[in-house]
Amino acid sequence: MRLMDVLLLRFDAPLMSFGAVVVDQRHPLWRFPGSAMLAGLIGNALGWDHRDTERLQTLQDRLRFAARWDAAPELLTDYQTVDLGQDFLMETGWTTRGRREDRKGGTAATGTHIRYRDHWANGVATVALALDGTGDPSLGNVEQALRYPARPLFIGRKPCLPAAPILVGRRQATGVKDALAREPLASIGPRRRPQRVEALWPLDEGAGVQTEERYDQRDWANNIHRGSRRYAVGLLEVAT
Fold it and tell me: pLDDT for 186-201, tens place per residue?
């Protein structure tokens, strides 16, 4: 049986965001990470930015992953308001790259803006990740970047900082679902362990309880979410 190299990632943070399709002021979540979010995370670790659209698109298209919850998360909705008409917001902002972003004279709407942003709170998720095909980056490049990221990493949104290093290590398995099932559950302390381990994996690695179509693809060149992928969702028997 042919084996493949797989990276194991662990998302452990007070808050995490696996952003789903935004509707007006609502910013909901997927139950598990999505392709665009993982491509953005890896691209950030590699030192890429949003102008590297071809590289990000190719990386997203090559991603193969499975995910599970080791500690059951709780849904938290953050009610946010901001008055964009304030002078200090109209003139200058700062990016995560440490560069100024001057806004004075822009056409952004002013007034109080309202957002409802959902987050997963107090959960621990494990992700098995591989790359289909060959090209840049290699899985070794991704492993090195996650071990020594070019910039600080966040899990979905900038305030969602990991509580521990994301990279667990490299494994060999018949697929990402197999790698995820072989990896023991994370130590979660007093947090709540789910009675049954929910997971998501590629459809070609086995049927689940259900099939889920997720609009988790990003058109990086046009900076919009567009395109869907189908996944298997079900329960996972995890090694102890």
Answer: 999 889 998 899 999 9
**What 8-state DSSP symbol labels residue 189?**
T
Instruction: Give the per-residue SS3 of 57-101.
Output: HHHHHHEEEEEEEEECCEEEEEEEEEECCCHHHHHEEECCCCCEE
Q: How many CA atoms lie within 13 A of 3 on its CB side?
A: 7
State how far the alpha carbon of 147 is from the alpha carbons of 26, 33, 151, 157, in Å. 34, 20, 11, 20
- pTM of this structure: 0.86
Q: Of 31, 68, 70, 15, whose CA–CA distance to 191 is shortest?
A: 70
Question: What is the rounded CA–CA span in Å between residue 49 and residue 70?
Answer: 31
The region, left, alpha or beta by phi > 0 then psi within -120 to 50, assigned to residue 156 is left
Q: Residue 225: how many CB atoms within 10 A of its CB?
A: 17
Report residue 10 as tokens.
């662990």
The H or E element containing residue 54 is helix 53-62
Which tens digit of pLDDT belongs to each residue from 105-128? 555 556 677 888 889 999 999 999
Give residues with Cβ within 8 angstroms of 61, minimum separation 6: none
